[in-house]
Design a protein that fits this description.
This protein has 531 residues and is α/β, with parallel strands linked by helices. The chain has three domains: 21-208 and 493-530, P-loop containing nucleotide triphosphate hydrolases (Rossmann fold, 3-Layer(aba) Sandwich); 223-299 and 302-342, Up-down Bundle (phosphoenolpyruvate carboxylase, domain 3); 348-476, P-loop containing nucleotide triphosphate hydrolases (Rossmann fold, 3-Layer(aba) Sandwich), CATH 3.40.50. Helices cover 49% and strands 12% of the residues. Strands 3-4-2-5-6-1-7 form a seven-stranded parallel β-sheet, sandwiched between helices. Strands 8-13-12-9-11-10 form a six-stranded parallel β-sheet, with helices on both faces. β10 (394-397), α17 and β11 form a beta-alpha-beta unit. It is globular and about 75 Å long.
Length: 531
Amino acid sequence: MPAVNYVSHPLIKEKTLQSRLYQETMLAEAVKKNLLCVLPTGMGKTPIAIMLVAVMLEKKPGKKILVMAPTKPLVAQHYESFLKILNVAEERFAFVTGNISPQKRGTIYAEHDIIFATPQTISNDLQEKRISLANFSLVIFDEAHHAIGGYAYPFVAETYLDQCDDPKILALTASPGGTREKIDEICQNLGIDAVEIKTEKDDDVKEWVKEKKFEWVTVELPPSFRRLYDFIKKSYRRSLAKLSAIGMRKPIDVVTKSDLLAMQGRIFAESKSGKKNYWQSFLVARAIKLDHALSLIETQSLQALGEYWKKIRSEQKNRASKMILNDDNIQRAMQITHEMLEKGYNHPKMGKLLSIVESTLKENPQMKIIIFVSLRSTVKEIVKLLEKVAGAKPVEFIGQKEGMTQKMQLARIKDFRDGKYNILVATSVGEEGLDIPAMDLAIFYEPVPSEIRSIQRRGRVGRHDVGRVVFLITKGTRDEAYYWASRKKEKIMKRTLHKLRNGDSDSDERMDEAAMTELKKPRQFKINDFR
């Protein structure tokens, strides 16, 4: 690691913020333009925001500043970080949530200078005219990849650009998305003028990056699982054949869940316009449910499949579920699932996972581990199995929709940091934003097709020491397809962002070597250059 120097600025407390060239380079662009800042998870996007706040407070002392993040815990985290580092009186800060009465929120906006809030709260208060952004010198959008569709970020940005004569926007993300269209949408929705990207391979970044070791552990479905899989697959293919007869254009062998959801959307749209096609909607719903069953046996666990069959049986009024239950292949699959569970069968991934954790803790009992899993039912199963491993202190970490409040999430993170637990088994809530302690080992129980989620997962390790990332992959299944899909999307994303940074929007997909070298050159800026 390079020698540690600290940022020197009258509005930043001494020795609270490391001076890193790549961060101050990004700051230089943020001072001049409305900027989308793309930086790997764990490489310090927040310090760039803090430095820009210091610059804007000094340049425009009579103006206010707004800092937003998608969740209350993340907003609270930012509030604490800015308060700790900025040399600004605490009474100027305010953390606003929807739990505060609307009238009181209006007073807070009027009496404080640095506001921290979720975009939903700000959006509501803008619509009700409890706040105006006309007097704000800076608005910060954290986790800016959310600025698409019907999310609150685009409305807040549009209102700010309309109300303020001299707006300044800083948008932060580790991964804006894998397509030019999505990146353009984010930039347009937030009024972005320029994009700055840094990767772990850039000359001024790599000296701060700890090595990550990647491992790919493959398993094969044993014959008993294959037999079960084949019964479900037969029923699924029959469903697709019927969909082909009513207009599904893709060949059966290449149909994806996305194709099925798109077809379902078309059928719903047609039904709203008066076309009676309920029977078709039941056929699509059946195919989607069977596809999910296949995904459980491919990527998750036998226990998860067993629970899914129980859910199907309970849906007596659901036509698609009744169609599934009347299928001879599914009845046989349900019977086999029950028999295998009775005999104690586990998905081969489970054995590999336990072996990896056991050997890791045996080698070093102080290791911190995070295991990413898509489904809550699999999270619970993994925690239960890990409790039997020597030295393992596992705990589940799930989202609000799955039953864990934000207060409970923060308490669990604190317990983990304090050593009560050494393994977090997390759903997607563990990927983004929250201040989860640096991990030594991250295990992807299943690869995810999203480049955004994959980047965020990897960012949880290797912040302070060498990190290790393990992918568990079932051969010949969607695990393999998802892994390569996210890799491809990530490469396209980085290439697109470099082109945007270079002002080259229409050139060939490949950037020549000289251009890439030029982009990676460090540029010398310091925060006091903007005073």
